[in-house]
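Issue 218. Parser rejects a valid record. Input:
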Amino acid sequence: MIRMTRQTDYGIVLLTCMASHTDRQVHAARDLAGEAHLSLPMVSKILKVLVRKGLLISHRGVKGGYALAHHPEKITMSQIISAIEGPVAMTTCSADAPGCCEKEPLCPVSSNWQRINQAVRMALERITLMEMTRPLPPQLLTLGGQGDLQGVGAR
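Output the parser choked on:
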């Protein structure tokens, strides 16, 4: 199974909370923890990583907290995941690190993994943080052009 860490999932939740509140520029870690129903130590850890990676700006002082470093329309899911997880890669050989696998020169599927990895990365680059703040339209996902899931697998 391909899965993000809980920390990355929580990071996306926290950034989505921040992007949803256009009335506030600066967000206190304690407030974000309460809103997201997460522990303050976990929230603080994630926010510090996001500051280090340039997605958030830290403000000190009594009215301090964290602010998005860019408009939510400019922050992509790929940037967020990469900031916390590292490069998006389905396999070791698709992590843009040629030669990291001794089997690479003989692997019959290496180029296909590169292709799959590129498709996943491109999909994540097309989804912005702003989009994550909006509810998903009910007909967004279609299988085989049907528009709903009725009859799937009934062939």
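Fixed in the parser; the record now loads. Helices lie at 6-20, 29-36, 40-52, 77-85, 110-126, 129-132.
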